[in-house]
Design a protein that fits this description.
This protein has 17 helices and 17 strands. The chain has 425 residues and is α/β, with parallel strands linked by helices. The chain has two domains: 234 residues, 3-Layer(aba) Sandwich (Rossmann fold), CATH 3.40.50.1480; 156 residues, NAD(P)-binding Rossmann-like Domain (Rossmann fold, 3-Layer(aba) Sandwich), CATH 3.40.50. An eight-stranded mixed sheet has the order 11-10-9-12-13-16-15-14. The longest helix has 24 residues.
């Protein structure tokens, strides 16, 4: 049920958790100097004044700092959860109580509640949608075509969402600009690789308290997220196996020192499986059948579709929780398969998601992409558009500056050489 306090509408677990959330939001903010600089400028210039923004994101301390920056810029923003298990309830409470931001998010909310919150996000009649998986955007197109005229554009945070937007564009349904924040260099090189790499293993360890050294960890997919997970698992002493469908990525994994094989060959030897593909049922019945007794499966892709849980339930005679976020399925064959985090994002279900220092750049992209959509309202072509290079490079420059790191600049002679075709060796 929606509650209203001092004109702020919300649906959260418990408003009394706000004090704890306030401290944690401030702690994360210390690690987000780029977003802080953007927030300070937004507070002075108000580039988002009067703009209605509906943000569908993981409700974490880092997202809270983005929401605060958007409000500082003058936006009329509301926030809903992008995943039923990724909400930090104390953070949601603080955003409502301390910052006057409407939040609709409860950790563990069921699918009906989630979809109702998506409708609430659209009831806000957004000019800009900040999406994480494109659920709000696709619902808008399918169910609310009368609101399309309100839309300046959307921004998308995830690989999964970009895949959906591409499909929408190919079907002629993406009739407005969508900024591909996920593909910005200052996003995927760092958030996807270093953020996902560390936080995924953090979630696995928090859920299980197992030693990773010496285990066979199968990383399913070698995109930027898979590269990060494989790199960090190797650093912790695991024997890493990679499965892939893309021959170029497969070669890259081999050259990076990993064993590469089909899932059919990896399934019998893996101790822990991590899916990071953004695709459906990459671990399924035939793989469960040959897994070791006690094999653990987890997902760090956006949606809970990468592991075929329906088939696993059909193969099982019983299931039980042995730890928080650790569910043992007893197969009819007598073996067991352990599912972590209900097959949802393990880094957010069992841990706290990406470290703030890396989300600093991702959410700086979101804030500046929102400003870009406002400044260029009516001027941008429909379809996926990249984050402008000058924004991407400025975020990197600000991050280096905050880290106290200087880099070289080209000399006049070097600039002349780069712009000339007549000078050879």
């Amino acid at each position: 049920m929606t509650t209203t306090t001092a004109e702020v509408k919300y649906e959260i677990k418990d408003i009394s958790l706000a004090a704890m959330g306030k401290d944690r939001i401030e702690w994360a903010g210390r690690e987000m100097p780029v977003l802080r600089q953007i927030r300070d400028r937004f507070a002075k210039e108000k580039p988002l004044a009067g703009v209605r923004i509906s943000a569908c994101c993981h409700v974490t301390t880092e997202t809270a700092n983005l929401a605060i920056a958007l409000k500082a810029g003058g936006a009329d923003a509301i926030l809903i959860a992008s995943n039923p298990l990724s909400t930090q309830d104390d953070v949601a409470a603080s955003l409502v109580k301390d910052h006057g931001i409407s939040v609709y998010a409860i950790k563990g909310e069921d699918n009906d509640t989630y979809h109702r919150h998506v409708q609430i996000a659209l009831d806000h009649r957004p000019n800009i949608i900040i999406d994480d998986g494109s659920d709000v955007t696709t619902t808008l197109v399918q169910e609310r075509p009368n609101q399309l005229s309100d839309i300046y554009g959307t921004t998308e945070e995830t690989t999964t969402g970009i895949v959906r937007l591409n499909a929408m564009f190919n079907d002629g349904m993406l009739t407005f600009p969508a900024v591909s924040v996920n593909d910005a260099d200052t996003k995927h090189f760092f958030d996807n690789r270093y953020g996902t790499g560390q936080s995924t293993l953090d979630g696995i360890v928090r859920a299980t308290n197992i030693l990773l050294a010496g285990r066979v960890i199968v990383v399913v997919g070698y995109g930027w997220c898979g590269k990060g997970v494989a790199m960090r698992a190797k650093g912790l002493g695991a024997n890493v196996v990679v499965t892939e469908i893309d021959p170029v990525r497969a070669i890259e994994a081999v050259m990076d020192g990993f064993r590469v094989m089909p899932m059919a060959e990896a399934a019998p030897i893996g101790d822990i499986f991590v899916t990071v593909t953004g695709n459906k049922h990459v671990i399924r019945r035939e793989h469960f059948e040959v897994m070791k007794d006690g094999a653990m499966v987890s997902n760090s892709g956006h949606f809970d579709i990468e592991i075929d849980l329906e088939s696993l339930k059909e193969m099982s005679e019983s299931d039980r929780y042995v730890r928080n976020f650790t569910q043992e399925y007893k197969l009819k064959s007598g073996k067991s398969v352990i599912v972590l985090g209900e097959g949802r994002l393990i880094n957010l279900a069992a841990a706290e998601g990406h470290p703030a220092s890396v989300m600093d750049m991702s959410f700086a992209n979101q804030a500046l992409a929102s400003e870009y959509l406002v400044v260029n309202k009516g001027k941008l072509s429909p379809g996926l558009i990249p984050v402008p290079e000058d924004i991407d490079r400025e975020i990197a420059r600000l991050k280096l500056q905050a880290m106290g790191i200087d880099i070289d600049t080209l000399t006049p002679e070097q600039i002349e050489y780069c712009n000339s075709w007549t000078v050879g060796t």
